[in-house]
Please model this.
Amino acid sequence: MTAIVTYALADGIATVTLNRPEVLNALTAEMRRGLRDALARAKDEARVIVLTGAGRAFSSGQDLADRADAATDLETSLTEEYHPLIEAIAEHPLPVIAAVNGPAAGAAANIALACDLVIAAESAYFLQAFARIGLIPDAGGTYWLPHAMGLAKALGAALLAERIPARQAADWGMIWEAVPDADFPATVARRARQLADGPPLAQALMKRVIRSSFDHTLPVQLQHEAAAQGEAGRAPDFREGVAAFLEKRPPRFGGA
Ligand code: LHQ
Model:
C-alpha cells in the first residue's frame, strides 16, 4: 500500500508529501496523524521541512467523503486533530516551507498559511472554499487571513470563496512568492537548501519572536526581541557568522 503521507530526507531537507492525488490530496484523520508524525520526526534529523502535494494539487482540504470524519462533530475534529497540526507547524523549531504545487483549498489553504515560507507555482490557487459548503474558514483561517492580507481582503476571501491565484496571493502579501510552473521545483529546492544551510537557533528564535508579535505591544515585543537576540548572540553560530564575514567565506552554521 502506498503511504498517504510520504517522508523523504536528503541533505537535511525533509520533504513531506500529501499523497492521495486521485482526490487532490483531500485530508483524512490518518493523513493528519501522518503529518504530525512527519513533523515530529523531522525535528531530530532535518534542518528544514518542505510540505507539498502529489499530483496536480497541494490539497483540497478536509476529505468531504470521509465517513468517519463526517460522523465527528466539527469542533471536536478541529480541536483534537487540526489544531495540534497547525500548532506543530507554527511552533516547530525548523522553518517549514509550503510548496504549493496546485490548488490549496479549505483547511489545506490555511495549513499552507501556517507555514513559514509559502512558495506557489503560478498555476496554483488558494480557495477559502468554506462558504460554498456552509462553513467558516477554519484550521487557523480566521487568524492567518486578516494577519496575512488585512481585514478587507480576508473578509472578501471568506465571504466570496473565490479562487485567489498564486500571483495575486503574492501581490497581496499572503505568501512569499509565486513562480512560473517550470521554475517551481528548482525554486523550492533552492530555498530549501538556503534554509537548511541557515543558522538553526536564530531561525527558531525569529520564528517564535516574529509570530508572537501579534500578541504584544511594542515595549513587550522589544523585550522579547532583545532576550532572543541575547540568546542568539551567545551561541556559536553568531561567532561563526562574524568569522565567516571577516574571512570572506560562506558561514558553516549549525554549531551546537
Ligand atoms: C474531493 C475533495 C474533497 C473529497 C476534491 N474531499 N474528495 C471541514 C470539515 C471538518 C472539519 C474540519 O474542517 C473542515 C475544513 C475544510 O477543509 S472544508 C473545505 C473542504 N474542501 C472543499 O470544500 C473543496 C472541495 N473541492 C473542490 O472544490 C474542488 O475539488 C477544487 C476547487 C479544489 C478543485 O476542482 P477541480 O480541479 O475541478 O477538481 P475536482 O473537483 O474534479 O476534483 C477531483 C477529484 O477529487 C474528484 O473526484 P472524482 O471521483 O470526481 O474524480 C473530487 O470529488 C475529489 N475531491 N476535493 N475535499
About this structure: The first helix runs from residue 29 to 45. The CA atoms of residues 19 and 101 lie 13 Å apart. The chain has a mean pLDDT of 96. The beta strands are 5-10, 13-18, 48-53, 96-100, 104-105, 117-121, 125-127, 163-165, 177-179.
